[in-house]
C-alpha cells in the first residue's frame, strides 16, 4: 500500500472546543511500533471527557488532540524490532495516553498494545472490543480476582462496559447480577446475566447483599452505596470514582497530585475500612497480551461485542452526541475507512 504523507483526523485544538476534520501528517513509526491503516474506531465516554478537559488532572494531554481511543485496522508498516506482526495483519488495540487518536486514517502504535483480530470478527465489530474489553478484564480479573461461583454485581449492564463485563464474568464462572432498563433486560439476559434489576423500580443496594465483588461504572451515590452490598473481604472496583494516593504514585503523577487524590478519596477509604472491603479505582491500561486473551474468548464464542450504531466518519460529532446522551446499548462505532470484507 502506498502510504501518503497527509491524512484526515477528527481533532480539537483547545479543551471544550468542538472537534473538526483536519489534515495532518501521517505519523512515522519507531523501531517497536507498527503503522496501522484504521478501518473502524469504537467511541467511548472517555473521549468526550478528555475533550471537556475533565481528565487533564489525571493525564495531561498535548493539544491539538485527535479523538478516539480504540481501533481495528490493517498493518501497513512495521518497525525494525517488530517480529510478531506483518504487513497485512488485521489488528486491533487501545493506544496509550501519549498516542491516542483513532479517528484518523493511520496510527503509529507500540507492538505491545495490539493483538490479531479473530478471524470471525469484521473490522466494525472488532473496533468495539479493546477499551471496554480490557477495562472489564482488568476490573474483574486483575483487581477483582473473580473465582467460579462468586457473586458479582455489575452496574449498567447494557452499556459499552456492561455488555463486555457480563460476558467476561460469566466466562470466569461467576453468578452475575446487573441493572438495566426494562427495554434492555432481554439483551443483558442473552449475554448471561443471572439476575437483572430494573433500576427504574428497584434500587440495587436495597435488594442485594453479601456479594463478593461490585464492578461500579456509575460513581457518585451508586459507588458509596456499593460498599453495603459486599461481604466483609469483598472487592469494590470502580471506574468512575476518585483516584487514591497509590494511584497517583503508580502513575508517576507527583507528590502534590497524589496528596490531593488522597484527600479527595479519604471518605471512600473510610467507607471501605468500615465495611471491611477492598476498594480500587481503576484507570484501564493498554495490553496486547490481555487483548489476546479476549481474542481467545471471542474464538470460543464466550465473548461477542454488541454494536448499537455505526456512523460514517463525516458524522463523528453526531456519533459522540448520541453516546453522550447516555443510552447506548453496547458500542457506538465510526467507519473511518470502511471497506466491505470478503
Ligand atoms: N476508568 C476507566 O478506565 C474507564 C474505562 C471505560 C469506561 N469508563 C467509564 O465508565 C462509564 C461507563 O462507560 P460505558 O462505555 O459503559 O458508557 P455507556 O455505554 O455510555 O453507558 C450507557 C448505558 O448506561 C446505562 N445506564 C445509565 N444510567 C444507568 C443507571 N443508573 N443504572 C443502570 N444503567 C444505567 C444506560 O442504560 P439506559 O439507557 O437504560 O439508562 C446505557 O445502556 C463511563 O463513565 C466511562 O467514562 C472508565
UniProtKB/TrEMBL annotation:
Gene3D superfamilies: Medium-chain alcohol dehydrogenases, catalytic domain, NAD(P)-binding Rossmann-like Domain. This is NADP-dependent oxidoreductase. InterPro entries: ADH-like_N (IPR013154), ER (IPR020843), GroES-like_sf (IPR011032), NAD(P)-bd_dom_sf (IPR036291), YIM1/Zinc_Alcohol_DH_Fams (IPR050700). It comes from the Bacteria. The lineage of its organism: Bacteria, Bacillati, Bacillota, Bacilli, Lactobacillales. It comes from Fructilactobacillus hinvesii. Residues 5-334 form the Enoyl reductase (ER) domain.
Amino acid at each position: 500500500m502506498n502510504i501518503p504523507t497527509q491524512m484526515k483526523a477528527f481533532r480539537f485544538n483547545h479543551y471544550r472546543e468542538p472537534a473538526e476534520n483536519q489534515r495532518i501528517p501521517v505519523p512515522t513509526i519507531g523501531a517497536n511500533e507498527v503503522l496501522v491503516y484504521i478501518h473502524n474506531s469504537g467511541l467511548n465516554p472517555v473521549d468526550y471527557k478528555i475533550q471537556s478537559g475533565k481528565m487533564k488532572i489525571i493525564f495531561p494531554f498535548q493539544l491539538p488532540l485527535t479523538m478516539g481511543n480504540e481501533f481495528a485496522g490493517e498493518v501497513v508498516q512495521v518497525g525494525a524490532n517488530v517480529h510478531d506482526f506483518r504487513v497485512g495483519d488485521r489488528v486491533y488495540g487501545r493506544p496509550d495516553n501519549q498516542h491516542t487518536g483513532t479517528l484518523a486514517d493511520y496510527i503509529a502504535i507500540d507492538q505491545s498494545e495490539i493483538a490479531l483480530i479473530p478471524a470471525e470478527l469484521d473490522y466494525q465489530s472488532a473496533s468495539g472490543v479493546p477499551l471496554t474489553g480490557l477495562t472489564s478484564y482488568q476490573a474483574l480479573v486483575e483487581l477483582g480476582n473473580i473465582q467460579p461461583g462468586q457473586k458479582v454485581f455489575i452496574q449498567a449492564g447494557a452499556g459499552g462496559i456492561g455488555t463486555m463485563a457480563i460476558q467476561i464474568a460469566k466466562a470466569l464462572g461467576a453468578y452475575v447480577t446487573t441493572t438495566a432498563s426494562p427495554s434492555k433486560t432481554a439483551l443483558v439476559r442473552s449475554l448471561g446475566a443471572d439476575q437483572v434489576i430494573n433500576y427504574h423500580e428497584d434500587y440495587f443496594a436495597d435488594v442485594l447483599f453479601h456479594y463478593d465483588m461490585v464492578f461500579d461504572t456509575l460513581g457518585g451515590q451508586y459507588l458509596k452505596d456499593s460498599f453495603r452490598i459486599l461481604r466483609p473481604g469483598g472487592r469494590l472496583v470502580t471506574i468512575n470514582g476518585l483516584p487514591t494516593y497509590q494511584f497517583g504514585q503508580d502513575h508517576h503523577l507527583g507528590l502534590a497530585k497524589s496528596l490531593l487524590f488522597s484527600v479527595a478519596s479519604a471518605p471512600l477509604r473510610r467507607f471501605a475500612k468500615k465495611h471491611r472491603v477492598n476498594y480500587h479505582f481503576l484507570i484501564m491500561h493498554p495490553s496486547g497480551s490481555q487483548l489476546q486473551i479476549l481474542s481467545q474468548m471471542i474464538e470460543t464464542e464466550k465473548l461477542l461485542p454488541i454494536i448499537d450504531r455505526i456512523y460514517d466518519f463525516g458524522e463523528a460529532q453526531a456519533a459522540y452526541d448520541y453516546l453522550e446522551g447516555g443510552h447506548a446499548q453496547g458500542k457506538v462505532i465510526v467507519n473511518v475507512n470502511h471497506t466491505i470484507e470478503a
